[in-house]
Amino acid sequence: MDRNKNAKYYALAENEGIVDLYELAAQITKYSSLSGGDVLNVLENMVDASSLYLLTGRGVRLGRLGMLRIILKSDGVENPDDFSSKLINRVKLKFTPNAHMKKQLQNISYEVTK
User: Fold this and answer.
1) What is the phi/psi pair of residue 101, to 5°?
2) pLDDT tens readout for residues 19-47
3) CA neighbor of 32 nearest in space, from 44, 43, 46, 18
């Protein structure tokens, strides 16, 4: 059997690595009068504050970036009295980009690579 006979090719976003909070803070200092330590402190506190709100059932809107919220997946029951937390089988953090970020994504360039 020839595995390549009916091969299909799909789009794949290029991954050039990951930027951590330290690198992000260093970049932000270029646009700010704050020091790298100040920016890093704000970013770390944003993570802590966002977690606090998310865990109390609130979404967190991150300006022009988008919104974070917790979503649950569970098995369904016909009677609400039969529902329990044991039926929850997945907890996910969902990010929804806002209009500004969606517009930025339209500016992506594409090229075929092998």
Assistant:
1) -70, -40
2) 999 999 999 999 999 999 999 999 999 99
3) 43
